[in-house]
Known about the structure:
Elements (H helix, E strand, L loop, with lengths): L13 H6 L3 E7 L2 E5 L10 E5 L5 E5 L5 H7 L26 H25 L4 H20 L2
Antiparallel strand pairs: 1-2, 2-3, 3-4
Helix pairs in contact: 3-4
Amino acid sequence: MAKGLRRECLAVSSIDKLLDQLEGLKQSVPGKWIARCPAHEDRSPSLAIRELPDGRILLYCFGGCETQAILSAMQLQFADLFPEPLALDNSRRTRFGLSNAEILQLISHEITVAGLILANVVDTKTISEPDWTRFCRAAHRIRAVREHGR
C-alpha cells in the first residue's frame, strides 16, 4: 500500500492499484486523497483523487494534465477508473468514432472535471485561466454529444 495507507479489503481494488503508484500521497478524508501528479514534474501535490461510493474513481490535476495523460503515466486505462464495464454494445460506433459506452464515459469524465473545477471555485472564489479553459472544453464536449443525440 502507498505510504502506509491500508485498506480493509483483501482484494486489490482499482483505487489500490492507482494509489500504489502515486508519490506524496496524503488522505484528506475517507475516500479522498491528494498526490503528486505522475504526468508532469510535480513538486507539491496537485492531483486530487476521489473514490465514489459505487467504486468509480475521479481524478483532477490542478496543474492542467488531462486524465488520459495521468492514466498513461501510470500505465492504466479509463476502464480502471470504473468498478465494472458498462453493459452496452461497444461494437457500434457513433459518428464521433466512439461506442455508446465510451461516450458515456467521456460525458461522466467531463461532468466530473467541471464539478471539481466548480468546487475549487466555491472554495477559493477565483478561477485560474487553465481551469477556465478546461471548464470551457468540458462544456463544449458535453454540448457536442448532446447535439449529436438530437
